[in-house]
Design goal:
9-stranded mixed beta sheet; globular; homodimer; 307 residues; 4-stranded mixed beta sheet; 11 helices; alpha/beta
Amino acid sequence: MSITVVGSVAYDTIETPAGRRERCLGGAATYFSLAASFFTNVRVIAVVGEDFGPEQEAVFKARNVDTRGIEHTAGKSFFWEGSYLENLNEAKTRNTELNVFAAFEPKIPDAYRDSEFLFLANIDPVLQRRVRESMPGVKLVAGDTMNYWIKDHRPALLEVLKGLDVLLINDTEARMLAANNNLVQAARAVMALGPRFLVIKHGEYGATLFHGSAKGKSGERTFRTPAMPLEAVIDPTGAGDSFAGGFFGYLASQPELTPGSFRRAMFYGSVMGSFACERFGTERLEQLTRAEIDERFHVFRELTHLD
Amino acid sequence: MSITVVGSVAYDTIETPAGRRERCLGGAATYFSLAASFFTNVRVIAVVGEDFGPEQEAVFKARNVDTRGIEHTAGKSFFWEGSYLENLNEAKTRNTELNVFAAFEPKIPDAYRDSEFLFLANIDPVLQRRVRESMPGVKLVAGDTMNYWIKDHRPALLEVLKGLDVLLINDTEARMLAANNNLVQAARAVMALGPRFLVIKHGEYGATLFHGSAKGKSGERTFRTPAMPLEAVIDPTGAGDSFAGGFFGYLASQPELTPGSFRRAMFYGSVMGSFACERFGTERLEQLTRAEIDERFHVFRELTHLD
């Protein structure tokens, strides 16, 4: 089944202990699409400037990602500059230029309308809601957000949460959204705002899926995937979006959404997040094969299973 | 099989967001013994003052822990005061009084000499080494240490590491000991110092077992256990020592030390650490049953296994 994703397609300048890269292709929708494309058909909605050319287009095409929803306008693409020199788990933003993204009005191509899965990557919740409402027939809607929207655009974000089946956020965002430091209590509070499923990402420690009312014993309705213990984290940019792509892409590839498919989706999410960190930008995802993905899935099983 | 443990038996004054307790029974050897006692016979070597009376003795006796190696001397027992008000994952020490511990000279009762397992809890590495050398016939030796010994008593600690089969430390300690921020690289560097097995504890995110040379693909010789997502962390004091007790106690209960027994030991360690946090001090461990432990073990399996 097809996923439509709306989000940023951008250029990133990244500095990590492993080096520096100028103006890599980046953006949440880019990482999500590339990661999800190993599992299912992906269709992107985004806006880019005149600096987005055939070379960038080719990265999507090589993974069969549908780019008809990428709008080309006058000006420059969204640009972000960040550093992981102090902390590999959290980028320090040095510069953000919205550029053409400032006036982004998502338009949904007719060819995308039969998508059964919708992913609302981290953008203005007003836009997330608009896209959500334009695609009422989808089977499963997932989304991401960030501290900025949680703090300063809460009412708009709360409207988005009402329409989500799955929310994917990190520890800090979950605690901030729920105003509660205990993750189990925070998860319950966040699910009360709408999403039936909540994935809390713990960076290098993996992620936890909370589902249902999470009442009763705390282990009963949760699932934890580890992250890969990596010998060298070259660049964590896009790891969270690649997790989302692996997770949601795998779900979209399944004939039925069972508890088992959600568990495997968590593993595939973590697998894709780990690959994203192995090279700068999208380099690793561009060269990846499905065989490598499945091999790492089995390493994850070895890493966590008793027998 | 029997474990001999050497370490502190102490009084703790603890403050957490859930409240404050004055002079609870504590100390690494206490938590370790109580946790391990659910799996095997445990024998303690420690020193206490005149403030350690029948009421404290009874806590060990109720779990069939052999206390003949607890030396009673004039003075007061080791005392620690700490606060978790700022960070539930890391205590802020407010006060430490070594008291009778300052002149501790571990003496090994003859009745302990047939122990096949030895645990060197976090004490002066000079004493750890002395106990290790006094019990050359043991089958498996594990130990713990802390930032203070790593920073200021490194040569003595390095001697201890040469005689250890298993070292259990946390993320910060592993990075400090190896002078390397990448945990996989740090693990390899620490194992090169002696221990064949290294357990790195990640607090609320679980723990990773590294074993063998850890060469080849990074997932091949590692195992991750999650921690329990707890709805209320009342007091994390002793969680690491309880992890060690569950881990090592389970290993000592096994007829053979197979990769499978190490994996299950990691789960039992994490199970015991999670119980320790549910009440102040040793309260939860004192009231625990083996049935509750095995029930939580199964919750851990549910929490991590694909099917």
